[in-house]
Amino acid sequence: MDAFLPSTLAVAIAEIGDKTQLLTLFLTARFAQRNAIILGILVATLLNHGLSAWLGAWLVQWVPESWGPWIIGLSFIAVGLWVLIPDKDDEEDTAILKYGAFVATCVLFFIAEIGDKTQVATVILAARYDSLLWVILGTTIGMMLANVPVAYAGSWLMQKIPLQLARWSACGLFVGLGVLTLIMA
């Protein structure tokens, strides 16, 4: 359970202003079915973060025990600094849109998360904490907390959230987790 709160907060804050929020805006502008979009985000995130958490737990088995906290701590700090760099607006493949809101959202979200900050953070969180279930649930809920309001409130909400503050908050959270991991080593 100690993995749940850091996982939720890390992803929820890191997602503010991320390309997946922009993707949510795009999908809500294209499709009227908000619930199908939200369900697609949920399914894609569970799959992506589930695989990522499994990878993190698997990788930590192969790293010498004395190296683990250093690699994890420094990785948290690196992700913290990475969130300060705004995402570039990738062009999405619009051919998938013909399959409807749910399928388009599942595919586009899964692809958008590959190599993204939150996917890397999920790998690191799973390597740091013993409970894959709580990491997956936490990162998934964090993703939903960041994207569900965008699906309903759209561009109005994005104009009200100061992105610099969100980026610096996410940076502070990740760096704090990194420093805490290094201190506990």
From TrEMBL:
| Keyword field contains Cell membrane | no
Q: Which residues cross the membrane?
A: 36-61, 67-84, 96-112, 132-153, 165-184
InterPro entries xref list: GDT1-like
The UniProt entry lists membrane topology as:
Multi-pass membrane protein
- UniProt-annotated location(s): Membrane
Keyword terms: Membrane, Transmembrane, Transmembrane helix
Q: Which family does it belong to?
A: Belongs to the GDT1 family.
Protein name in UniProt:
GDT1 family protein
The species is: Marinobacterium weihaiense
Q: What is the lineage of its organism?
A: Bacteria, Pseudomonadati, Pseudomonadota, Gammaproteobacteria, Oceanospirillales
